Amino acid sequence: MSLPEAVTRALRHRILNNELPADSRLVEANLAAEFGVSRGTIRDAMRILHAEGLIEIVPRRYSVVTRMSTEDAEDVCYARYVLEDASLEGGFGTGRRDLVKELRLALEHMSVAARLNDLDALVDSDTQFHRVLINVSGRRRLTDLWGMLNSQMGALMRAELERQGIDMHETVQRHLGIVSAVSDGDLARLRAEVRAHYLDGFPGAEGAPGGDGAARP
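RESULT FIELD:
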């Protein structure tokens, strides 16, 4: 791991776990002294965190921890929903039992992360959970497009937990309907669950099936 990657990982962990809450200032010189690295290394890390939607950079001054807007969160969720639904459109394929096992394993990892109150780890396991769904079709370009959205999942989940006023355990619970639908072999219900998981609670999604008034990170 390079120095910028190591610094990025450390700062990402602090931001996602709210050790650095929204509006916290990140001063380049202070961070360079703390991590024992050059200011150039800090600038590289800031650029990565900015691309992930976790900070805003004030040129030649400092960076500020930010939160993804509701509009941007809805855009990311809609894009992921469209891609995952397209992957599921053709059915479960021949490996539905293996699919259930993989989803349950990812869900167990999510539960552990929630117990540890570690949103950084929860984001990783949530990504693995949904990667199982996007891989169902076996279409590489579909998976590649989906993967391009992953860099902003931490910002999305941090913002949505705060907007909805829920905790990480609730986030884990909101994946159970997807696992249940796959376990029952009910494709129509699975697609409805995925739609509700991503779109419920956003202004443009009142008609989403399974709506409960809260978007599901």
